[in-house]
Amino acid sequence: MQYRRLGQAGIKVSTISLGSWLTYSDSVADNGASQCIHAAYDAGVNFFDTANVYNHGHAEEAVGRVLKDFPRESYVLATKVYFSMGDGPNDRGLSRKHIMEQCNASLRRLGTDYIDLYQCHRYDTDTPLEETLRALDDLVTQGKILYAGVSEWSAVQIDDAVALARELNLDRIVSNQPRYNMLARTIERDIIPLSEREGIGQVVFSPLAQGVLTGKYKPGQQPEKGTRAANERQGSIIQPLLQEKTLTAVQHLKEFAQEQGYTLSQLALAWILRKQNVSSAIIGATSVQQIEENIKAGDITLTDDVIAHIDEILGDTVSY
Fold first, then answer.
1. In whole angstroms, what is the distance from residue 218 CA to residue 241 CA?
2. How confident is the model at residue 258 (pLDDT cuts 50, 70, 90)?
3. Fold of 3-210+264-301
4. Of these residues, 3, 24, 41, 54, which one is catalytic?
5. DSSP string, 63-119
6. Is 54 marked active-site?
7. Please, what is the end-to-end C-alpha distance for the chain in angstroms?
8. φ, ψ for residue 78, nearest 5 deg
9. Please, what sign has the CA dihedral across residues 85, 91, 93, 98?
10. Tens digits of per-residue pLDDT, 282-294?
11. Lowest mean pLDDT among 28-32, 36-40, 169-173
12. Residues pairing with 28 in the sheet
């Protein structure tokens, strides 16, 4: 396993990390979650990501129960705040009230004294940015969180946060968690250049494009029962990626990966990690086999010729 610094922060995270969105304490039973987390930890994964909103707190509880098996100092634990956790007018967003209350709630659910990386799950246009940054800074001072990050913020929003933190001498954000994969490359335009300049690392989600970049979805065929695309609740998220042109290109990419001696998943993850600004790629796994396959990507280095051929195969299926 390879490790990289989280932006310019001193903390190091495994290049492959394990997330819990749409998996733990939902489609994966607690026993399965335990097996996956143990397999990842044993393979050198030290970065585990969750959020308060995942299955309305139950994912945090499931992850926290398993992580008790390991020394607290041996792993990096990340969670998030923003989305609604109740019906009240203050039960969502990035107000001081919601951040403070949800941090304490996450600590209880996770069964820990501190959160290594606390992330703003989205940008809150209803709360002054200074209020949000001061709340995060206070949590760092209190020792409840060690670092602060954001997720799915625009380049302008990140730049504003960096400038304001510098002006007010507040603790700075160290990471951004965006969607990034071979088919979705929007962050390459503005986010990565800004982050490289300001010392912010990417911890990317959906590196396999909701499973499309495993090659399991075939052009002209209905998704198999039990897959994410066949799930009525989850299928709407993945539907835009299931175009015939995209699935055909992915099948060609799968053949190319096999020619190189990799699975398509390994190629897709290695492609992401070619960017040094990417600190970690967050995978979601429902089996130990998936863990064992995907973590090997951290040791793969792709040549310029391979990267160029990937672009040629995918062509105009890519969104920038």
1. 12
2. very high
3. TIM Barrel (3.20.20)
4. 54
5. HHHHHTTS-GGGSEEEEEE-S--SSSTTSSSS-HHHHHHHHHHHHHHHT-S-EEEEE
6. yes
7. 30
8. -125, 140
9. negative
10. 999 888 999 999 9
11. 28-32
12. 24
